[in-house]
Design a protein that fits this description.
single chain
Length: 447
């Protein structure tokens, strides 16, 4: 990877793209420090600290902008949500599916609708946040039309600007701009998180030996998770395909072998995001009404439900009376596996793949075309989805377990590491492909 980056800086065009990407990311970090006028930042910090780890992932995605209540507090989450909604609608609505397959014009139209969806979601989210917390101390001047307008416009403009900056990186920089910004936001908070781990487990250790053991365990755990993520991201099940020979004019064509690549982790990080969001939603909504998770004697049934949904209360070995709330972890794992199957099944259609194979004269080795091919693909898909879901479960649960059992409460977790490692790998591949194209151009021009 280091060799690829070193060689990339030797190519003038790629060097310009890397520099352009870096400048955009600097602007993103500057915008993350600009506060929204009329907002009480101390209230947000206090509210966030009361949520334990329930909102850590969201704050990590915003690069800390949420707790600072900057104009980029919503970050690119509205765009991500809008993209996911459009992707699901494209599969559910035949007309949108036709537009997606129609070529560049259709994809541009869908991208335009995604932008509109981003603005609409930004307005809804910022308005809900401002109204929900306005009377509780968020707005310095109270809940008024002027204050609400300033907050909604600031957050919506910030989200729209980030979306535009991401598209500029995609067009003039390196990699997928939205993914790069998301990764950069997460990485920006990691030094503080590692500093927190150092103070808690190394500096606060009772002896030098214990501090050394803690350091080795932390480094080994992080490295092991990164290796597992890389294996999960690159793992592919190749299904061999053979194409029959046929006569075209006077030539015999076909007869070549190929394969269908099925990624083990086809759904990527989507199942983890969906599962986390679904469990965090009751906590966020209840916060608008001033209701927080509780397990005391006077706690209501709903407060105990919120306790189950709160990741900070899972795997609490220090207080076995609270350990019963680890039921939320089991619900989280069940949701993760469900969304892994759900998302993969709506994005990969075995019936369509089998039909396309039959039209092109291809068949899976040892499997008859038609329904047997569909059944075979479904069988293989179900097995690899389960393997991918188990891998995601390990990556997502280990940080949660460490947080509950040992108090290692950090902003980044398994989900964040999946995003960071995945974006880095994808960006490196894009740099390598661009360098390869330029090598081909140079070879052709020399001749």
């Amino acid at each position: 990877m280091l060799e690829t980056i070193r060689n990339a800086f030797k190519v003038k065009d790629i060097r310009k793209r890397l520099l352009y990407t870096f400048i955009i990311l600097v602007l993103v970090r500057i915008g993350s420090q600009l506060p929204i006028p009329g907002v009480n930042r101390e209230y947000v910090l206090k509210w966030f600290s009361d949520q334990t780890s329930a909102m850590n992932f969201f704050n990590a995605m915003t690069g800390g902008s949420f707790t600072k209540m900057s104009v980029f507090a919503l970050s690119i989450t509205p765009y991500i949500t809008s993209s996911i909604i459009m992707q699901l609608l494209t599969i559910a609505i035949p007309k949108l599916e036709e537009m997606q397959k129609d070529g560049e014009d259709g994809r541009k139209k869908i991208a335009e609708w995604t932008r509109y969806g981003t603005i609409i979601l930004s307005i809804i989210e910022s308005a809900a946040f401002a109204v929900g917390f306005g009377n509780q101390g968020l707005l310095q001047d109270g809940l008024g039309v002027k204050s609400l307008t300033v907050v909604v416009l600031s957050l919506t403009a910030g989200s729209a600007l980030l979306m535009w900056l991401g598209e500029q990186i995609t067009e003039k920089g390196i990699g997928n701009g939205i993914s790069i910004i998301l990764m950069f936001n997460i990485v920006s908070g990691m030094p503080a998180d590692f500093g927190s781990l150092y103070v808690t487990f190394i500096q606060g250790a009772s002896s030098t030996t214990n501090a050394l053991i803690a350091a080795v365990v932390i480094v080994a755990l992080v490295l092991a998770m990164i290796v597992l993520i890389i294996m999960l991201q690159d793992a592919i099940r190749r299904i061999p395909v053979q194409y029959a020979k046929k006569l075209q004019g006077r030539k015999m064509v076909g007869g070549q072998s190929s394969f269908i690549p099925l990624k083990v982790n086809t759904a990527g990080v989507i199942p983890v995001i969906f599962a986390s969001s679904l469990l965090s939603l009751p906590i966020i909504i209840s916060s608008f009404a001033g209701i927080s998770p509780s397990s005391g004697k006077g706690a209501t049934f709903w407060q105990k439900v919120l306790k189950v949904c709160n990741q900070g209360d899972w795997c609490n070995f220090k207080n076995f009376g609270e350990f019963k709330y680890t039921l939320g972890l089991l619900i989280y794992i069940a949701l993760l596996i469900f969304f892994a199957y759900f998302y993969t099944n709506i994005t990969f259609n075995p019936v369509e793949v089998a039909a396309n194979l039959k039209k092109s004269g291809g068949f899976i080795t040892g499997i008859r075309p038609g329904k047997p091919t569909v059944d075979y693909l479904n069988n293989v898909l179900n097995k690899i989805i389960f393997i991918g879901a188990v891998g995601l479960m390990i990556i997502a649960v280990v940080p949660i377990f460490c947080s509950g059992a040992f108090g290692a409460n950090v902003g980044f977790g398994g989900t964040s590491l999946i995003i960071v490692v995945g974006v880095v790998l994808e960006t490196i591949k894009q740099i390598e492909s661009q360098m390869l194209v330029r090598n081909y151009k140079g070879f052709l021009s020399d001749n």
